[in-house]
Design brief:
Blueprint: H1 3-19, H2 21-29, H3 38-41, H4 53-64, H5 68-76, H6 81-108, H7 115-122, H8 125-156, H9 158-179, H10 185-205, H11 212-228, H12 235-260, E1 273-274, E2 278-279, H13 280-287, H14 295-301, H15 315-338, H16 342-349, H17 356-368, H18 375-408, H19 424-427, H20 429-446, H21 449-452, H22 456-477, H23 483-509, H24 515-540
Antiparallel strand pairs: 1-2
Helix pairs in contact: 1-15, 2-6, 4-12, 4-15, 5-15, 5-17, 6-14, 6-15, 6-22, 7-8, 7-22, 8-9, 8-11, 8-18, 8-20, 8-22, 8-24, 9-10, 9-12, 10-12, 11-18, 11-20, 12-15, 12-17, 12-18, 13-23, 14-22, 15-17, 17-18, 18-20, 22-23, 22-24, 23-24
Length: about 550
């Protein structure tokens, strides 16, 4: 099988989907040009700041992408390339992109608040509490693990450390140029991207070597600043500029695949059960998350992105479109890894091997080499581009954890009563960030994250199911079409409940029990079932309602 045909089919499919199904979904969600977005209505210069569509797309894409769309397909390739490819295409178009777009739209109709606020509005305060505790705990785990991963990367590849530090300084300068000195976006982007690649060169010339513990401490200090600083100063411009690294890597990969015309070496299908992974259902749908559907995306959509959307009509490109770009990245990753011979793939993926990111870097580097570029240099560039996005996910997750913390302490809303003023913990971003960073740091330094991390894939997809449930309840309350989110929601619940049930069984009653993981799996099963039960009455009836949030109520 030629990798070119897999690439062309995916590329055409994603473009057509964005122009057709994406536009249809926008109509079902009631997207309207005239609505005033929270970024304008609640503009505070810190979290709520209108962003140009290209800048916001870069921020959103950089936040949701990273190593995950590479690790998932490379790992699930053990089942064969066909099921992975089909899941990326079908999942990305009809589930993942819809999930991201709908989460973004639901959030901007509720003052840019998280999906937890949507749960409270239509499921109840108990549902909001459970959702926020679950999402906050997941984010703390992500911050802890990504701190470890980035710190270890900086130790192993000090060139990446230098480049990342320079990226941060460049981002601050770019943000000031754009927002304070009103530099034209095109000119600022050209200069910024040129300097961005200059940072890569300087990183190779002057590697920054520090100890692992020193990097952990510095990273925790950095994410604290990134979380409390105005979004336009650091987070948004850094993500926007960083996105060009990924765009460049993808562009080289696309042209490289066409030039190399690789033959897919991996079998189309191996077995419904793979030793060490499990059964195709539900393992495939939990392993390949980013690139098909990922619950973390709903937190980004309803966290930082919803607070920066300039116009509602930008939501389709940012929400639906960015997910399709990530799905294309997952297809590129699949082709790059599947083009390796079976022995080489196994050597990368074996215990003690270099791992899926290294397999992708080498595979894509060799494909790009068909353009006449040095394979080793290109492999190093791919690895460096991927590592840069781990830091992006880290600072975004920290800011999202602060949002979840603050929303948890928002006063309960009672119908017919005036809104009560927010307490100190809901208003102060420094306290929420400090507590989040301390908890993540303690988890990272103690090493206890290793006991919990194996269950993250299932927890992440449960988050996606809960986000789809919240959006379904919102649309049902408005008496709008909701089958396009309800059907994916039911499927994702089936995936996660099956996965969590299997994890609970294996870790509580298996040959090598892990009672911590078993208990967490049972706890997550309980959260899912309680929230599903609370939502049953909402989903069983349809009726008109006036929305909370900015702008006039949407017509039903």
């Amino acid at each position: 099988m030629s990798g070119i045909w897999l690439l062309l089919l995916a590329l055409i499919g994603f473009v057509v989907a964005h122009l057709t199904y994406g536009r249809t979904v926008a109509g079902w969600l009631g997207m309207a040009e005239e609505r005033k977005t929270p970024a304008h209505e609640l503009n505070d210069g810190v979290d709520y700041v209108p962003a140009k569509p290209a800048v916001l797309l870069g921020h959103h894409f950089a936040s949701i992408a990273g190593a995950a769309p590479i690790i998932g397909p490379a790992t699930a390739l053990a089942f064969g390339w066909m099921p992975v490819y089909l899941w990326i295409l079908i999942g990305g178009v009809f589930i993942g992109a819809v999930h991201d777009f709908a989460s973004l739209m639901a959030s901007i109709r509720h003052q840019g608040k998280s999906i937890g606020e949507v749960v409270e509005a239509y499921v109840g305060h108990t549902g909001k509490t459970l959702f926020l505790v679950f999402s906050y705990s997941t984010l703390i785990l992500v911050v802890a693990v990504f701190t470890i991963v980035v710190a270890q990367t900086f130790v192993d590849v000090p060139q990446a450390a230098t480049s990342s530090v320079l990226f941060i300084l460049l981002a601050v300068g770019f943000g000031l140029a754009l927002y304070r000195f009103k530099a034209p976006l095109l000119i600022a982007t050209i200069v910024g991207v040129a300097l961005l690649f200059g940072c890569l060169v300087l990183g190779n010339l002057f590697p920054l070597r520090l100890s692992f513990n020193a990097w952990v401490a510095l990273l925790l200090a950095y994410v604290f600043v990134a979380s409390v600083a105005p979004v336009w100063v650091l987070l948004q411009p850094r993500d926007y500029l960083n996105s060009f690294l990924l765009y460049a890597m993808m562009a080289l990969g696309l042209v490289g695949i066409v030039a190399a015309n690789p033959t897919v070496q991996a079998p189309a299908f191996t077995s419904v059960h793979v030793e060490g992974l499990g059964y195709l259902f539900p393992v495939l749908f939990v392993t390949v998350a980013c690139g098909a559907i990922s619950g973390f995306h709903s937190l980004v959509s309803s966290g930082t992105t919803a607070k920066q959307l300039d116009r509602e009509t930008d939501a389709r490109t940012v929400g639906y479109g960015a997910m399709l770009i990530e799905s294309l990245l997952a297809v590129v990753a699949l082709i790059a890894v599947a083009s390796l011979t079976g022995d080489r793939y196994q050597s990368f993926m074996a215990k003690g091997g270099a791992g899926p990111v290294a397999a992708f870097s080498v595979g894509l580097g060799e494909l790009i080499a068909a353009l006449g570029l040095p394979a080793q240099t290109m492999s190093n560039f791919v690895a460096l581009a991927v590592s840069a996005f781990a830091l992006t996910s880290l600072d975004t997750a920290t800011r999202l954890s602060r949002f979840a913390f603050q929303e948890f302490f928002e006063p309960r809303r009672v119908a017919g009563e005036p809104a009560r003023p927010s307490p100190f913990l809901a208003r102060n971003r420094y306290v929420g960030t400090t507590i989040s960073v301390v908890l993540a740091g303690a988890l990272a330094y103690s090493g206890t994250w290793k006991q919990i991390w194996p269950i993250f894939g299932s927890a992440n997809q449960l988050l996606a199911a809960l986000a789809l449930l919240a959006v379904t309840a919102w649309l049902a309350h408005r008496a709008r079409e909701n089958a396009f989110v309800k059907i994916p929601m039911v499927f994702m619940f089936a995936v996660t409940l099956t996965s969590l049930g299997a994890l609970a069984r294996d870790h509580l009653f298996g040959a090598n029990p892990s009672y911590v993981l078993g208990a967490v799996a049972v706890l997550l099963l309980g959260v899912a079932l309680v929230l599903a039960g609370l939502s049953f009455k909402v989903l069983a009836r349809r009726g008109p309602a006036t929305e909370q949030g900015s702008g006039p109520a949407a017509s039903s």
